[in-house]
Amino acid sequence: MIIRPYLTIATLGVLAVPTAAAAQSPTCNFRGTPDALAERPSPLDSVLVSLGGSEAKLCYGRPSADGRTMIGGEHPFGTPWEMGANEPTTLHLPFPAQVGSVNLAPGSYSLYAIPGEAEWTIVVNGNPDRWGVPLNAEVRAADVGSFTVVPSAGPTYRDRLTFRFQPSDDRAGSLVYEWEGVTLAIPIARR
Known about the structure:
Number of domains: 1
Largest sheet: 6 strands, antiparallel
Low-confidence stretches: 1-23
Oligomer: single chain
């Protein structure tokens, strides 16, 4: 019997043990027992990304600002930030894709950002199995590529970090990040 050091979360809000059917769909790998995962102050979440008849998945922890200034405050501008909580924000791709200007083979990648006042650098990293922080030289040595996006003011203040997928056509769309008063559209397309 193999004991895994983490759980696999196959769908939003449902803890599951991988099955042959689930192995065909990307899964989120969060570390801990069901009780420990349920007690985290930053709930776990995922977003399905439907492109060209297949699904990719973005997995992340949802920190809350709780009245604090997070980006540009506790997470200073110009400093790498994990774009979530606990494990890294991870993109699982069962097909070749382009994220921003970065071409990616099928596989799993972590994402992090370097926020700025006028633009953010989004970094794709080849190590999805690390803990979220620190984003030190050892972590950054696995960077695959980066691109910039321009933040916009969100329609409303969002206390808890949220990602959603917004399709533009069958093969392209955006991973939309919303937190505090900021919205980012991260382009993603199936190659």
